[in-house]
Amino acid sequence: MAILNIRNAGKSFGFGALKQDILSNLNLSINEGEFLAIVGPSGVGKTTLINLLVGLLQPDTGSVEFEGKPITGPSQERALVFQTYALLPWFTVKQNVLLAVSQVHRHLSRAEQSAHADRYIEMVNLSHASFKRPSELSGGMRQRVSVARALAMNPKVLLLDEPLGALDALTRATLQDEFVNIWKTARTTMVLVTNDPEEALLTADRVIPLRPGPPSTLGPEFLVPFDRPRRDPAIRESAEFIDLRVQITDYLRASMPRLSADDEAYAFPDLSPPPVVKPTGWRAKVRKLLAHFPEESDPT
Amino acid sequence: MIATTSSTDDTTTPAPGAGGPRKSFQWRGLFNPSPIAHLLNKLGLGFFVPYVRLAAGDEPQKQVRQILIDILLPGLAMCLFFAFWAVCAKHVKTDSTRIPTPAETWSAWQGMQAFAADQAVKESEFGDKMEKLAAVWDKQAQAAKDAGDAAKAAASAERAESYRSKEYAGPPTFYHQIGTSLITVTIGFIAATLIAIPLGILCGLNRYFFIALNPLVQIFKPVSPLAWLPIVFVFVTALYDPPASSHLFGRAMFISAGTVTLCSLWPTLINTAFGVAGIDKDHLNVARVLKLSWFKQLTSIILPSALPLIFTGLRLSLGVGWMVLIAADMLAQNPGLGKFVWDTFQNGSTESMAQIVVAVFAIGIIGFFLDRIMFALQRLVTFEDRAI
After folding, report:
1. Does B247 map to a domain?
2. Do B80 and B108 reside in the same domain of the chain?
3. Is B271 inside any structural domain?
4. Residue B66 belongs to what domain range?
5. 3-class secondary-structure state, position A207
């Protein structure tokens, strides 16, 4: 059963001559409880697409529907995990999660809200850091807080906007597995937007490429038939898996602008850096003297 | 080429800063100075950091060097300044007066302190005398009451009360004047804050409000306190009728304070507006997705994120306010430091010039401390680097 429906939707930015269609002719139906991944390279409108699903943006043409009704604005039933985490730096981890909890679960008492927040902080394995501020956390930890905040809203749909884009490969792998575990426990519909076909194949039931434009549009769906966990080399390095990855990559590459043959043979101009002039005489003496006095950080 | 140059330099003169951050992990000295140093820096007392590090035994040579630099260089500048002052005192003179020497200024300062002490003694003597007189009338009232003459008893008690309520009417001392100035600037600054922060928040939140208000802000911002004063005078005189008995909260004080308000609200207003307008778009999207109420959005997102800039504005505002206050005091005849400077100048002797120089130093030092206080507050509300 479809929980989210996009029908012939399009979005453009700018006016008049500068108007540019970013997305057009989007058609997608997301089933309840599925893990869907949308893959596309940078700058093709992935964030715009997810903002349409959240309700932060409205489509110019067509419609986006949630449970059969057109989306007119954000709703607490569709939680978003931001690409930039968007944690409030003046709040601790717990306070960041509590902000969402107190907003969504108003009927609960304070103690119950606090317990609820703790449960989701526990789910992303951050109980030990619950009283730290975002600046004291690593990138991966921050993103987990952001996931906990979204999950604590008990949304029907969890939308993840390139959540692992800024993380290193090892942290990405850990969090990918965590997303799958969370999806299994929380049983929400999850939509993961990513630029990495492999990430999509490791996590999702269904992968849909966002074909670069402009205007970009959604391509054919690729069903992922593998059992989870998929990190096992038996799956990851199987011919089917690689074949699927190649298909998706080729599909995306086919419509990306490429360097022409001439461009590839670009020759560097024959330049060399200017010689370094070592200071002599009194200048050298002053420099040497100054080296004794390191610049202290001046608070004023 | 570049690499070899720097490496040879490193072997001859090791960079003293190289070992800095490593220290915090494995500290083997007396105590770990880093938290104290961090706190001092945060409070704007970075000057004392080398002393703390020295006490902890953290790279003593480096600290001693830093302390020497911190003392010697300002000391040198100070000496040059005093020399210049002494030369001026020798050569700059008019028919009636001249620039006082540093020594004369110092003795003027001691004279002012002695005067203040003398006044304090006189004031307490006056209080004792009034109390004695009041006691006499109290006795009479008691006697009349015992005799059954209620009217006389009441009259006597009233006399006693009138003696007790008499205030010493001696001339204000320098300390009183400083007190008056501080109270005045506080009133003006608080009023400016109460006006500027809400207006700034509105300007930052609503583009149309900002466009509407911007021309007024830009026009009134550069207006001199001297031009505002007559207008404030009319307002205060029309709207405020002080009780005759109050010395302190007279019209003059509110005229000064009003002028301070009008001149010092702009930096806070503008900084608040920019602070609020510059909120991270993602944070506002969080508020939209969570459907935060307007009030919750204000308290949990807008204010915390604008607070550092608001405090920058407040710090600038207090600086402007203190500067403006002196001029306003002069013209409004508010018995603060400004009036003191002006009255003393009218006096015209070299002695009074020395008192003015003392006042100049006092104004500067108080302004410096006000700025330090605001700086420390500003540091305390500034959260660590934003996420990402």
Report:
1. yes
2. no
3. yes
4. 27-89
5. strand
Nearest-by-Cβ selection for B387 from A76, A104, A135:
A135
Average of per-residue pLDDT across A277-281: 77
Phi, psi torsion values for A182, nearest 5 degrees: -65, -40
Q: What is the pLDDT of residue B19?
A: 42
Q: Which two tokens stand for residue A114?
A: 């606090």
> What are the Cα distances from residue B143, in Å, to B150, B152, B290?
10, 10, 78
Identify the CA nearest to A193 among candidates A165, A230, A215, A226: A165
Tally of domains in chain B: 3
- Is B9 within the bounds of a domain? no
Rounded to a whole number, what is the distance in Å from the CA of B89 to chain A's nearest CA?
Answer: 33
Are A142 and B282 a contacting pair at CB < 8 A? Answer: no
pLDDT value at position B246? 58
A189-194/A35-39 β-pairing: parallel
CA-wise closest residue to A188 among A79, A53, A83: A79
Contacts of A88 in chain B (CB under 8 A): 283, 286, 300-301, 304-305
Burial of residue B260, with CB atoms counted within 10 A of its CB: 0-12 exposed, 13-18 middle, 19 or more buried: buried
Q: What is the pLDDT of residue B199?
A: 95
Answer whether A139 sits within 8 Å of B388, measured CB to CB: yes
Residues 214-233 of B with CB under 8 A from A: none
| Residues 188-247 of chain A whose Cβ lies under 8 A from any Cβ of chain B | none
- State the pLDDT at residue B4: 38
A80 touches chain B (CB under 8 A): yes
Question: Do B39 and B147 reside in the same domain of the chain?
Answer: no
pLDDT at position B82, please? 93
- The answer to whether B165 and B245 are in contact (CB under 8 A) is no
As a three-state string, the secondary structure of A107-139 is CCCHHHHHHHHHHHHHHCCCHHHCCCCHHHCCH
Q: Is residue A71 packed enough to be buried (19+ CB in 10 Å), middle (13-18) or exposed (0-12)? A: buried
Say whether both B132 and B216 belong to one domain.
no
User: What's the average model confidence in pLDDT over A227-245?
Assistant: 86
* Cα–Cα dist A215/A21, whole Å: 5
Average pLDDT of adjacent 10-residue blocks, chain B of 388 residues: 38 41 53 81 82 84 88 94 91 82 89 88 86 84 81 82 78 86 94 95 92 93 89 88 67 90 94 92 89 90 90 94 92 88 82 88 94 87 53
| Pair (B321, B363) in one structural domain | yes
Statement to judge: residues B72 and B219 lie in one domain = no
Are both B198 and B301 inside the same structural domain? yes
What is residue A36's predicted lDDT score, i.e. its pLDDT? 93
Tell me what the mean pLDDT of segment A197-220 comes to: 87
What integer pLDDT is reported at residue B29 of this predicted model?
63
Residues B259 and B345 in one domain: yes
Q: Decide if A20 contacts A134 (C-beta within 8 A).
A: no
Question: What number of other Cβ atoms are within 10 A of residue B180's Cβ?
Answer: 25
On whether both B360 and B301 belong to a single domain, the answer is yes
Of A74-88, A183-197, B148-162, least confident by mean pLDDT is: B148-162
User: Mean pLDDT for chain A?
Assistant: 85
Q: What is the ipTM of this complex?
A: 0.77
What confidence score (pLDDT) does residue B385 get? 46
What's the pLDDT at B212? 94
| 3-state DSSP assignment of residue A208 | strand
Query: Which chain A residue lies closest to B17 (C-alpha atoms)?
Result: A294
Contact A194, A78 (CB under 8 A): no
